[in-house]
Amino acid sequence: MSREVILTTPLKSEDVMSLRVRDVVYINGVVYTARDLAHIRIAEYLKEGKPLPVDLRGAVIYHAGPATRRRNDEWEMIVIGPTTSMRMEPFSELLLGRLGVKAIVGKGGMGEGTQEALKKYVGVYLLAPPGCGVLQAKFVKRILAVHWLDLGMPEAIWVLEVSNWGPLVVAMDSHGGNLFKDVKEGAVRKMHEILKSWVVLQ
Amino acid sequence: MRVIDEKSLYEIALELVKRSSTRIAPDAMFLLRQAYQREKSLAAKRMLEAMIRNAELAAETGKPVCQSPGYPVVYVKMSPVIIVNANIQKVFQKAIVDATKMGYLRPSMVHPITRRNPGDNSGVGVPDVEIEISPEQDYTELIISFKGCGAELANVVKVLTPAQVGKDGIGIKRLVLESVIAAGGVPCPPVGIGIGIGGQIHQATKLSRKAIGAREWTDTNPDLELAKLENELLSAVNSLGIGPAGVGGNTTALAVKIEMAYTHTAICPIAINFHCWVARRSGIRIYSDGSTAFKEDMYRPPI
């Protein structure tokens, strides 16, 4: 039976372990955006032994590139929505293992490597509703900081204070559960039933 | 005879672009609300709720429904007595460029090979325009449809042999179900599915885009055989259980729309065209007395 769960950052392993696929999550606290270029730079910095501008222990990473506006020395969020997570697949071991990230939020799901890392380091992959840029922006109470803006507005790391950010659906959990795999297997079974019934009708 | 000049066409074009970027078509909204009532699982219900709320907020605040603006196609059905005396493609491109500068559309059109982005959604072939003459119409109709491009990645085009079509088109139906499963959550379900069948492959693809881009998602196909196939496929697709955003549930598609053309005896071209739930479409009718009406304002949900 799926549940609705409210979590506060930084996330602990116990928080993550209690989650199962199909649960619906709402997050309070701090969220870090990162997409392609930020991930590449994080990997470079770690390789070169340079310090990162953010501490990602217990962190929530959001695969998203926001549209923001600067007004009176403060950043303002216009729209923000999830981007396809699969592109960040090569970095999961690094983020979850080495940096201690606890949750990844995005669109479309991730691969085998992430599934393994989520299990090994106790993490969770959450799905944000697609195409909901205006609604998602409403949960951002404040933009706390922005790092690496030289990568461009969508590619920078935006540090966001969020309140009751959701609904986010648990799509991959720390126990090996994978919602997309379940859904796909069910769909293939159902398709064979339908095709059989069509043939019988003839 | 009424003539629509360049200046009035520009005003119409700009209004259609603004309307379609900030709100989704009322027929799609109706189907989303209906789906919300029908869904049982918590995750699916919450996803639909977020989509409906997001569309409402965008309409209230005049912000773009989705950060990604999609690709524009303009469908023109011209009455022989109400004619447009302007380069429709150029006028709509100017309206799109101006709407981009006003913040309605993110600059997203690029050169297909170099990926150079001119920064204002201008470019060769943008928007695509299809013009047809309808002798029986006492109005001229213009529809703009912005279809998202994540959904485009799930599209399927194929030329089947008569043997592959099979009895009662079972090969076509099978291909649709397989394509929906392969697509999963990628095209941002609940989707609209446009299917073009027949002609040569270029006709099938054009028909597929028009079926889901220009038609209202709650309409009934005047071709009774196609209407039956649309209903059959819609219920089959929804029984697959992929659900809103791919989280599982009984709403995978809001609509299946099929258009066909006769084809050659050796082939059956088919195009399956996915549309995300964000149905950005706006249309206008211009009558011979000069009065106008927006299609979405005239919309009545099915009883």
Topology of this structure?
The complex is a heterodimer of chains A (202) and B (303).
Chain A: E1 4-8, H1 13-17, E2 24-33, H2 36-48, E3 60-62, E4 67-71, E5 74-79, H3 92-98, E6 103-106, H4 112-121, E7 124-127, H5 133-138, E8 140-147, E9 157-172, H6 179-201
Parallel strand pairs in A: 1-2, 2-3, 3-6, 6-7
Antiparallel strand pairs in A: 2-9, 4-5, 7-9, 8-9
Chain B: E1 2-4, H1 6-22, H2 26-38, H3 42-61, E2 71-78, E3 82-84, H4 88-101, E4 128-133, E5 139-147, E6 156-160, H5 162-165, H6 170-183, E7 191-198, H7 201-213, H8 224-238, E8 253-261, E9 268-275, E10 280-287, E11 292-294
Parallel strand pairs in B: 1-3, 2-4, 7-8
Antiparallel strand pairs in B: 2-5, 5-10, 6-9, 7-9, 10-11
Helix pairs in contact in B: 1-4, 2-3
Salient structural properties:
heterodimer; A: about 200 residues; alpha/beta; fumarase; five-stranded mixed beta barrel; 6 helices; 9 strands; about 30% helix; B: alpha/beta; 60s Ribosomal Protein L30, Chain: A; 2 domains; five-stranded mixed β-sheet; 8 helices; 11 strands; globular
How would you describe this protein?
The complex is a heterodimer of chains A (202) and B (303). Helix content of chain A is 32%, strand content 30%. By secondary structure, chain A is an alpha/beta fold. Chain A has one domain: fumarase, CATH 3.20.130.10. In chain A, the strands form 2 sheets. Chain A has a 5-stranded mixed barrel. In chain A, strand 2, helix 2 (36-48) and strand 3 form a beta-alpha-beta unit. In chain A, helix 3 packs parallel to helix 4. Chain A is globular and about 70 Å long. Chain A starts with a strand and ends with a helix. The mean pLDDT of chain A is 95. Chain B is α/β, with parallel strands linked by helices. Chain B folds into 2 domains: 2-23 and 65-148 and 281-297, 60s Ribosomal Protein L30, Chain: A; 150-277, no CATH class. Helix content of chain B is 36%, strand content 23%. Chain B has 8 helices and 11 strands. In chain B, the strands form 3 sheets. A 5-stranded mixed β-sheet of chain B has the order 4-2-5-10-11, covered by helices on one side. The model of chain B has no long low-confidence stretch (mean pLDDT 96). Chains A and B meet through helix 5, strand 9 and helix 6 of A and helix 3 and helix 6 of B.
